[in-house]
Amino acid sequence: MSRKKSSSGGRPNRHTSERGASRAVPEGDLGDFLSESACPFVLVLDGVQDPHNLGAILRSADGAGVDLVIAPRDRAVGITEVVRRISVGAADHVPFMRVTNLARTMDELKAAGIWLIGTSDRGGQSLYQVDLKGPVGIVMGAEGPGLRRLTEEKCDFLVQIPMKGRVECLNVSVATGVCLFEVLRQREGMRPGGNT
Length: 196
Prior knowledge:
By secondary structure, this protein is of the alpha/beta class. It has a single domain, classed as Alpha/beta knot, CATH 3.40.1280. It has helices at residues 30-35, 51-64, 81-86, 102-111, 149-154, 172-190, and strands spanning 41-46, 68-72, 96-99, 115-119, 125-126, 136-141, 157-160. The radius of gyration is 17 Å and the shape is globular.
């Protein structure tokens, strides 16, 4: 029995398509893309650089039902083979948009009626105190520095994840998963037959 090796010499990734296509959304299509959803659920990443983190984030985004992930073109990782492998196929399914000007894109999201919720140690409320049932964009910062000042200013609300232990913060991919699944939990509670 022979095993086919990938072009990188490593084991083939059974979780991704052979041609490596991701769901890239052109920057100019933001308005049209958002109009396809009655209650958009967007994830904005402000400078995530580690491909392992992006892969894990895309996996969580797929599981939570995120409509679109937005990241800047500069100083941030895009879809790479490592991202695709870590995402176990989610990079092939979750729409991903790279933008030139993140602050301008956030303004466009707000103009489309999407509330932007940023995560920050300076957040005045707990994530669990904010209503996340409507059109929402969760905004996550980079590894280490978190949200940049302008990105933070563009958010409608800043929230924090309650921490009970001795460490100050969570890894960005873990924190993103917590936030995304809180949105899902609140939205599932709205549906007939959902838990309230």
